[in-house]
Amino acid sequence: MPLVGVILTMVGLVWLSQIVKLIYLIDRGVSFKEFMFLVTLVLPSLIFTILPFAMIIGVLIGYNHLSYDRELIALSNSGLSSFSLVRPVLNVAVFVTIIGYFISLYLLPMSYSVLKSNLQHFRENYASNLVQERVFTRISKNVTLYVDEKKSGGLLKGVILFDNRSEGHNAILFAKSGRIRFYAGVPLFELNNGTRQEVDQFGKMTKMHFGALSVALGSDRCNADIIAESVDENELKRKCNSIIDPASRDLNEHFIGELFRPNYKLSNERMIKLKSEGHQRIIWPLYSLALTSLALGIFMQKPYSRRGNGAILLKAGLAVAVVIGLHFAARNASSKLEIMNVLSYVNIAICFGMSYLLLSEQSRFGRRIGKLFS
Fold it and tell me: How confident is the model over 92-124, as pLDDT tens digits?
């Protein structure tokens, strides 16, 4: 029960902070049901990060309560070893570790991809809501839009688009209808049944009629202004993705296999970051078991004291803090130098080794380490 309480409390507090960050979506027309679906998609990444910390705090609270009631000393005097006393919670830690791997390998990348996709969808709708009927709306620095009428679903009627992004080439596009969409994070204006007129720096005009035309509003990520002359959404998405560097995807969007063997070309620096994230996805769930074992191993060196367990709890907390500090130091180093990933594995291996020695009563070296913490 202490473990469940700590997990719910920690996840709830961090989740609340994320809800506050996304609350602006309600002002932009997102329904309460859609908003709750979005904030639920944030939970896997929060739980993945919090599980080891919640496990340690919950377990220490529970065992400190047993110590305060002198139950641990009674069980120990009855002949139970330290390992026997902590075995039940180690079984729970193994179960929590399995949950951590399920989140790491599947739930985290899946939920994050859906979250990002939905945010882009709401952003698309918001962009359409910015446009007002019969008003010249400045979409960006060099793009201005005018529409006669707005329909449901983001459909725009009677469109005039002023595109002055190309130096010396001013273009005006007239279309009977249009719609703003997002593909791979890039805003595209899909126009239907219209004309494109362009005047170059010498005053020469060129004119083009089109049935369907897509104009990239964000030329910083899509290099070509005109992406395609097709209304097929899959074709538009494919062509836009061919221009955009797929390495721009967030690390959390990648599944574990993609982190080690991405199916696209990327720089060596980006490859190192992907592999570093892959190793962290493997290592981090193990800390639910490793840190719990270490904290309990230290705590069991002095399970009862008339003056309270403040000192031993402080030692356990400091040991956990050192391990976590070394982990994040190795993680930061591994994002720049691939060989540093070895330090992350060495760190957790030492943590497991120390835990075994502390919980083992047959090892002379273990007894010496135990006296150091007792």
Answer: 999 999 999 999 999 999 998 888 777 766 665
Tokens of 174: 């007239």
Which tokens go with 273?
Answer: 């970051």
| CB neighbours of residue 215 within 10 Å | 24
Nearest residue to 139 (alpha-carbon basis) of 156, 153, 152, 151 = 156
Q: Which long-range contacts (C-beta less than 8 Å, at least 24 apart) are formed by 190-196?
A: 190/214, 190/231, 190/236, 191/159, 191/161, 191/215, 192/231, 194/159, 196/171, 196/172
Q: Tell me: the pLDDT tens digits for 295-337? A: 888 887 766 555 667 777 888 889 889 999 999 999 999 888 8
CA-to-CA separations, 83 to 15, 52, 296, 355, 357, in angstroms, rounded: 35, 20, 10, 10, 11
Report domain extents, the chain.
131-247
Q: Which 8-state DSSP code applies to residue 152?
A: G
